[in-house]
Amino acid sequence: MAIFDDLKSVGQVLQEAGKIEQYKQILEAQEKLLEMQKRVAELEEENKKLKELLACSEDLEFRISVYYKKSNGDGPFCPNCWDAYRKLIRVIKSYPSADSGKCPQCNNLFNIEGREPVYKPKFARRDLL
C-alpha cells in the first residue's frame, strides 16, 4: 500500500535525523493502520457471509414440512437445523417409507413428498361410527 511506503519513508528520515520520538509516533501509526486494515478485512468477510446467508434464505421455500430451493428445486432440507442454526442439512429419505425422511444432524423425522400427512387412528371408537 502506498500509505505504508510513505510512512516508512517518513520514518527513515526521522530516524536518520535523530527524531526518535517522532519516529515512534510513525511506528504507532503504522501499527494502528495495520490493525484497522485487519478489521476491515474481517468485516468484509463477515459481510460476504451475511450476503450469502441472505441470498440462501430468500431462495428457500417451505413445503409441507421441509425446505426446498426455489432456484433449482434442490432439497429437502431440515427446517429445524435451518431455523435454529442457519445450516442447510439435507433430509435423507427413510427406507421403509419414501414419503418420510430423517435429518442426520438433529434426527427429526419429516414428511418430504409434498403431501399433507394422513391421520390414521390405531383404533376406531364404536360410538362415533
Task: Give a verbal description of the structure.
The protein contains three helices and five strands, in the order ααββαβββ. The chain has 129 residues and is α+β, with helices and mostly antiparallel strands. The radius of gyration is 30 Å and the shape is rod-shaped. It has two domains: 2-53; 64-111, no CATH class. The strands form two sheets. Strands 3-4-5 form a three-stranded antiparallel β-sheet, with no helix packed on it. Helix 1 packs antiparallel against helix 2. The chain has helices at residues 2-16, 20-59, 79-85; strands at residues 60-63, 66-69, 92-93, 100-102, 109-111. Mean pLDDT is 81; it is low at 116-129. A hairpin with a 6-residue loop joins strand 4 and strand 5 (109-111).
List keywords for this structure.
single chain, 129 residues, alpha+beta, 2 domains, three-stranded antiparallel beta sheet, two-stranded antiparallel sheet, 5 strands, 48% helix, 12% strand, disordered C terminus
